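Quick one:
INPUT:
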């Protein structure tokens, strides 16, 4: 089997036809991991023994005719998604030896499907970053060019799939952490509607922004994995109900209407975007126009403020969420004479520079005398950004932008935090608005003699992932 071209859909067909077994498939990926992972460092830990046992159980399900879409499919799991009994460190020293005491809801759903868990994928510490350089255990590398980053914070997940070390992977997306690495490594990355996939068992970074989603080779595969993990979860208070709330779109009786109009906020795209990226983007938009889509120029006057709003709201939530790591209840604990010293020494030793930076920034914007000037004002602008999308979706079926303003960059080239943050300029609006977005490859740009993949981002209305899958499939066909 050619793992470089294998998809979930093709593997499902071959497994069901008994062309090879789930154990054969799993062993093939484990063989690649053994060769490539020492250099690429996509995985922090590989679970060879349990993966083979899960593959054998999957073969039993197939033999009994009880297979499901992901039965026997080898998957990488980002290191902030809990699997009972497994280390879940969020790539941080403060949780280096923490073993999860329960399964995340998405983990439970994949276990029911009979998926095979290959290992835990590297990431930026507590999902804070756009390059995986902030991992406490060393960065992952981009398989296309080892001198460049694979993106972040789900860089290990994207590198694993791009290097044929997993058939698919789960990541988490707070401000583009699935879509940006997908763009950098030539994959499809989906950030679902906020609440469409349970966050129970996902280590929280920004609770109003985080969402688990798939990294795959094709749009079809992204849909297969999304369909397996989506759905209401009583254990997650932010989980969307299937029906029953008048203020949310209902799934009941929903019929698919093929998208026809795509909006492009060109004034938002012009400033700071790599010219080659813009050229690729305009070329892809023209291909969609030839397929029958109407391309509409739109204005979204508040969306350009998304990055500033995100880097106020997100650190504020980080400051609150990471308060629990105090050296007392679980994780790293540095002994000291008093409780205050235990807190400070543990957090100083356990958190990396970027985590400390965002905790301090978040504490500042929430502090007395500054909350009104920063945090509450950012929340007000966030509402205006949501309104921009609502108004846009009254006249178009989806909004298109480049996924990132530039291709994958070299290690160390974004040492200035602000230079790193600007990488999220096109991806943060969807998280702030809670709407679904997908990154799909749109070709490559050449840098230093290497063709680096770049992605186009499609953003759809609340709960309309079907629109993303339809347009994504058309982009792949173009």
């Amino acid at each position: 089997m050619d793992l470089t071209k294998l998809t979930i859909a093709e593997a499902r067909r071959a497994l069901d036809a008994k062309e090879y077994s789930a154990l054969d498939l799993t062993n093939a990926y484990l063989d690649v991991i053994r060769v490539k992972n020492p250099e690429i460092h996509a995985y922090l830990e590989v679970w060879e023994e349990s993966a083979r046992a899960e593959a054998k159980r999957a073969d039993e399900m197939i033999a009994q005719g009880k297979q499901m879409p992901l039965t026997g499919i080898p998957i990488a799991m980002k290191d902030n998604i809990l699997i009972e009994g497994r280390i879940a460190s969020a790539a941080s020293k403060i949780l280096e030896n923490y073993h999860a005491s329960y399964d995340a809801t998405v983990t439970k759903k994949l276990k029911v499907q009979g998926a095979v868990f290959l290992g835990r994928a590297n990431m930026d510490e507590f999902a804070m970053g756009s390059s995986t350089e902030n991992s406490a255990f060393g960065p992952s590398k981009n398989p296309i060019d080892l001198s460049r980053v694979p993106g972040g914070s789900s860089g290990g997940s994207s590198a694993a799939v791009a290097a044929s070390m997993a058939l698919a992977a789960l990541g988490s997306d707070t401000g583009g952490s699935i879509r940006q690495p997908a763009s950098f490594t030539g994959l499809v990355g989906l950030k679902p509607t906020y609440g469409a996939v349970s966050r129970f068992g996902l280590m929280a970074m920004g609770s109003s922004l985080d969402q688990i989603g798939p990294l795959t080779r094709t749009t079809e595969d992204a849909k297969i994995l999304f369909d397996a993990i989506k759905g209401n979860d009583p254990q997650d208070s932010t989980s969307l109900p299937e029906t029953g709330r008048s203020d949310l779109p209902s799934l009941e009786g929903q019929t698919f209407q093929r998208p026809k109009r795509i909006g492009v906020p060109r004034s938002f795209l012009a400033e700071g975007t790599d010219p080659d990226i813009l050229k690729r983007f305009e070329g892809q938009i023209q291909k969609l126009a030839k397929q029958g889509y109407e391309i509409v120029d739109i204005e979204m006057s508040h969306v350009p403020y998304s990055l500033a709003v995100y880097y106020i709201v997100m650190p504020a939530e980080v400051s609150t969420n990471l308060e629990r790591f105090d050296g007392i209840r679980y994780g790293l604990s540095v002994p000291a004479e008093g409780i205050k010293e235990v807190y400070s020494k543990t957090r100083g030793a356990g958190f990396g520079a970027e985590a400390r930076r965002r905790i301090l920034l978040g504490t500042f914007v929430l502090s007395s005398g500054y909350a009104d000037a920063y945090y509450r004002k950012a929340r007000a602008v966030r509402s205006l950004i949501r309104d921009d999308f609502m108004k846009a979706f009254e006249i178009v079926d989806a909004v298109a932008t480049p996924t990132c303003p530039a291709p994958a960059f070299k290690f160390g080239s974004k040492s200035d935090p602000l230079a790193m943050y600007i990488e999220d300029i096109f991806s943060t609006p969807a998280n702030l608005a809670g709407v679904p977005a997908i990154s799909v490859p749109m070709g490559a740009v050449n840098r230093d003699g290497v063709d680096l993949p770049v992605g186009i981002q499609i953003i759809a209305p609340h709960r309309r992932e079907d629109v993303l899958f339809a347009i994504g499939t058309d982009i792949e066909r173009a």
